[in-house]
Structure formats: structure tokens, C-alpha cells
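Researcher: I'd like a structural prediction for the single chain below. Treat it as a standalone chain; there are no partners to consider.
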Amino acid sequence: MFDLTSLLTSLDSLQIKLFTWRRGTLIGTDSYGNRYYRGTRKRTDGRERRWVMYSGEFDPSKVPPEWFGWLHYTSDEPLTAGSAFHKPWVKPHEANPTGTEAAYRPPGHPSKGGQRARATGDYEPWQPA
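Model: Treating it as a single chain, here is the predicted structure.
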């Protein structure tokens, strides 16, 4: 059967790749494999066009802060790995697991049997006056 949605998605992807090939200059890549580009022409407001080509699934939360700042014109150049911004306590990115099997489910959740411990003696239900 003919799938129009996948055809349109493929054409959009091809169009973006052709635009990037013709009018983009590779600036760098990040630890996730995302590639960041700068346009070869200025926009009408005088700014340069900046964009990212995601590696794999489209997930904007995988743009590291140093590249996020560059994409949003906060800095003229992306921050380097040795900059004061990078802290040793920063954890690596983890995708949001909401809606997946890896999502947190507290005790008593229906997928965990639906039974939770009874409330302790310090619980008093609200009674209307």
C-alpha cells in the first residue's frame, strides 16, 4: 500500500539535506553526533542562519548547552570543552522515559500489581465540615 506520510517525510529530509549541502558550512559536531551548520548568506535581519542536523531520532533535548547557546545567538562561537562552563558534576543526557517501559512507576501503580501498602496511623482523611 502507498504511504503518503512516509513519502512526504522522505522528501522533506531530502530537501533539508540539499539545502544544507548548498548553503551550509559545517561548524562542528557534539558528543551525540549532531552536526551544526552556519549559513553562507546573511538573513534579511543581518544575522546568519544557524541549524542542527540531528544524528538519529529528532530530539532537541540532545543539544548540549554550549551548542544551544550558539544556536540561539547567545554566543558567537560554541563554548570549548575547556571553558569554565563545563563542570565535572554535570551528568550526561538521558532521554525522558515518560510513556516508556523505563518510566518511573511508584508502588501501587496498576502495572506493578495495583497493591500499595496501607496508610500509617498518621493519615486522616479529609472530612467536609
